[in-house]
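Sequence, structure tokens passed on for absentees:
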Amino acid sequence: MMERLGLLVIVLPELQGLRGVPQAKARHGDALDHSLRTADALPAGDPYLRLFGLLHDVGKASTLGDGHFIGHEVVGAQMVEAILRRLHVPRVEVARGRLLVRHHMFAYAGEWTDPAVRRFIRRVGASSLADLFALRRADDVASGVEEPQRGGLDELRARVGVELATSPLSAGQLAVRGDDLIDELGVRPGPIVGRLLAELLEAVVENPAMNERAALLALARASLARGPEADAGGAETHRPIRSRP
């Protein structure tokens, strides 16, 4: 209704740039038509998610080149943050919208390894996956993707469910805590503890079998033994821990 009355582009002028931007399947209209259909395909009970669906491709207008929209999700995430702030949307929803738009172009393939699935969960955040899958499903529906072709999304959702139920994916699930590093390795309280825990988590995401107290302490001890190295800005960091397969 707002689009038909010309009010939509008054409230969200950035959408005007999508009018006339071609979609891969011309019979489904332009990028603005696609965005409207995406919003319609999302749950009516979550108005912010529908707004994110409306805005998910807003970066296409400024990234069109040779029929492709390379990086439109990155540009779009920045634009969405600015738009939502202008509309005085709650901060938590601003962060939610930016993250969903930034990651909506994930390209799953059945060849993904289990560690790749776990890295995907870590990258997006477990609490955001349901929203991201809903947005992707709506995007596919709006693009005219046939139901059998959407099986990859269902497969990924199932694999994510298995990993969430069986694999350690956060620092709180590690078999060691910061106090263990301080007590057992003599590490001083400070940023180094957080960095070591992050490295241990990275190792465990790659190989969950490493999530045992003795193994993690050994990895942390080896990292400390290698000592700090300077990054490009001159700050001291520790070389990443690498677990054995």
About this structure: Confidence is low (pLDDT under 50) at residues 230-245. Residues 126 and 164 are 8 Å apart (CA to CA).
